[in-house]
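To: structure desk
From: M.T.
Subject: fold request, one chain
Message: Could you run this one when you get a chance? Sequence is below, nothing fancy, just the single chain.
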Amino acid sequence: MSETPKHVTYEDAGVDTAEGGRAVDAIKQMVAETNRPEVIGGIGGFGGLFSAAALKDMEDPVLISGTDGVGTKLVLAQILDRHETVGQDLVAMCVNDILASGAEPLFFLDYIAIGHIEAEHMAKIVRGVADGCKLAGCALIGGEMAEHPGVMRPDDYDLAGFTVGVVDRPKMLDPASVREGDVIIGLPSTGVHSNGYSLVRRVIGVDGIVPGTPEAAAKKAELESIEVAPGLSLADALLAPTRIYVKPVLELLRGEAGSKVHAIAHITGGGITENLDRALPKDIDALVERDGGKMGWDVPPVITYIAEHAALEPDEACKTFNMGVGLMLIVAPEDEAAVTGALEALGEKPFRVGSCVPGTGKVVYADER
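Reply: Done. Structure tokens follow.
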């Protein structure tokens, strides 16, 4: 004879749908703040709606998509109990990628997997996503908050994002346009951005620490007490959000100097070595200015700190971190002054990274030649 089934609700199983509803209510205004004229309706439907009517004004509109996450930087955010900026990291990793083709990001969607939903905690994360979307000029038109009890710790979470942008094909940037003698111009990063944190975590000794424990509190105090620059703690430097380059670079591309940009590289995982080459044709190398392992520009103190404490050789550092350059633009030498001047007029601080030389599509360094 079978036993009478025990009544078990979804909440008993660990999923709090009521709190999920409160979380959605908490983020509605943040999402609305990112709206563009093309957005139709709001969040809450089965799909995000975005009008494509404006694309008809382009000669040959090309849609470009990008998806990414924040990676293990989230471990550090959880140990330090700081969640307000990782959303910007998420947006930046996606929109900066499609910017490399000259595309304008139109809209963004996020996916948040979490052990247990708390409306206040979720609002902090989504605030960062909304802030990132505003910096990029794209609309946050939807997303998903997935509660995973039994799979993730209650305070554990992961982020993924997806963006769609557009560029008119005649204006799309193409590495095939790069020529021998072209100049590489860099735009500064805000620090480590969102790559290399598996190495960072090993260096600062946070592996195995569970957020919310006395051990985590002690590590938090330690990281907040270490200064990598006057007034800048290691904790603050490591959680500085990834810079979003969309608005100034799109303004540059739409101006008189825009036609002078041949290619763009977003420096993410793999550092300079494994990203700058993605903006090169097969018969050109990028010769990066480096002398005895020292870069030809100022490297953020936090990157220097991690590289020194990891005893990284210059080549290892350059294929792990951005080394202070978040975005690179390749232009003809006769156009360097015009592009640099236009960037400076937009409030940027561009600097020369190197030049293009005959080769096989690789990144090489001046002190290796």
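Reply (cont.): The two ends are 83 Å apart (CA to CA). Let me know if you need anything else for the meeting.
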